[in-house]
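Reproducibility note. Readers wishing to regenerate the assembly model reported in the main text can use the exact inputs given here. Chain order matters: entities are listed in the order in which they were concatenated for prediction.
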Amino acid sequence: MIKYMKYEIKGTYKYILGILALVLILITGIYTYISRANRGSHIGTIFIGLSVLVLFGTALATFLYIVGSFRKELYDDRGYLTFTLPLTGNQIVGSKLIVALLWFAILGTAIAMYNIVMALILNPVEVNLSELLSMVSHIISMKEIVVIILGLIFNGVNMLVLIYFSMALSRVTFRNKRIGGLWFVIFLILSGVIAYGQYNVGELLPYYVDLNTFNIESMNTLRHQLNMGINTGIMMSTNIAASIYSIAITVILFIGTGYLIEKKIDL
Amino acid sequence: MKNIVEIKDLTKKYFNKKALDNITLNIEEGKVVGILGPNGSGKTTLIKILTGLLRQTSGEAFIDEQKVGVYTKSIVSYLPDRNFLYKWMTIEDAFNLFKDFYSDFDENKFEEILNFMELEKSVKIETLSKGMHEKLNLTLVLSRNAKLYILDEPIAGVDPVARDQILDAIINNYNDKSSMLITTHLVRDMENMLEDVVFLKDGNIVLTGNAESLREEKGKQIDDIYKEVFSQ
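Running the prediction on these inputs yields the following structure tokens for the assembly.
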């Protein structure tokens, strides 16, 4: 699997570095323009908005690129190499998933760090790092940061696996037809069905775990605490049954995708 | 002698059309077998089932007594009828990939065949002509000491000089402990290297046997038998 990941990285790194370079140039341009045009004024809202747009563009382009990479295996001649390597379907899907997440993490971190550096260069302020950290820790705890990061990773995995599954299912169902966007229709339908199931499971078993204290509460308790202003960490609560359901669905979709590409796809 | 390939009642349907119709075939270890037939006879379908790229509708296929899967992929060296290498690669990347994934890959053999084919490792795959592609693909496939080689139309669409080079490479680098399955409709060029032949027509085996025995029995070359069988 590591070997396959190596070739996945080798095959995509030039594009990713290109995207990164483009985004960093754009961000530099945005910051420079704003700082020259409105020196000394409060322009935070504008540049944050523009940065978010650039970030969104990057995420979308990279996402489409990564999604396209899996689709190419199913429809292009490269599948003749990939699917005759002595690898299981799960190993192929797992490698693609990990490399995709790796690129998102690298892009996200690099762009975030660059934004901070640019902001500090163009608007130098005396910052006491320990004060800043203490301020941040008042707003959000380390535990919450970890939970948020894990949540982001899980949502990324969940989304990618669902897309891969939709593509594989589309390929298996319509064997010899390359119907553009059909996988997206399957993806939308599956997303709807899964979300509906998740909602119902949550309603059926309304017990939540507070991710700050790891106490299990019912929905009524959480509502009461919120009304009384006791539990400020309500946003860090998650429905237990819905979370288990979501994890189980992701695992099933992952194994299902591996099964489809190993046992069902006809090239 | 042990069979390296065992195919039993294999059928492949595309909707109502049968690409393979209930074929049964055994291939002995150490043999070079030609699967002969015109375009659309089911040659590539059969090979794709053996390499795990296609699923049969019914019947069974075993390679080295195993169902087609990860193990059989590790012992089969497959040359598809298309450019299957990743476009971003150089020849060196392709060499590294084969070295990484196949424990039977022989680096020295690769260097030898690559020199014979007059190819440079630093060349990007995207820039290769069809003939060069074919030579590179064959170099990679023959550099493995695989139990079974499966070559799908190895000389189709290449110029006569490249064709001779490819045929020489196959003859010179074939390991007699291995087995080889070659599909072709260019019988005249390949018949000298085939020990057994299987004639496939509309998904059915219409004639099979030892090439030499068939020549003696029919008093004709395999190429002429091919024309006779497929002109009917």
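We highlight two features of this model. The first strand of chain B starts at residue 3 and ends at 14. The interface with chain A takes residues 14, 48, 51-55, 69-71, 73-74, 76, 78, 80, 82-89, 93, 97, 100-102 of chain B (CB under 8 Å).
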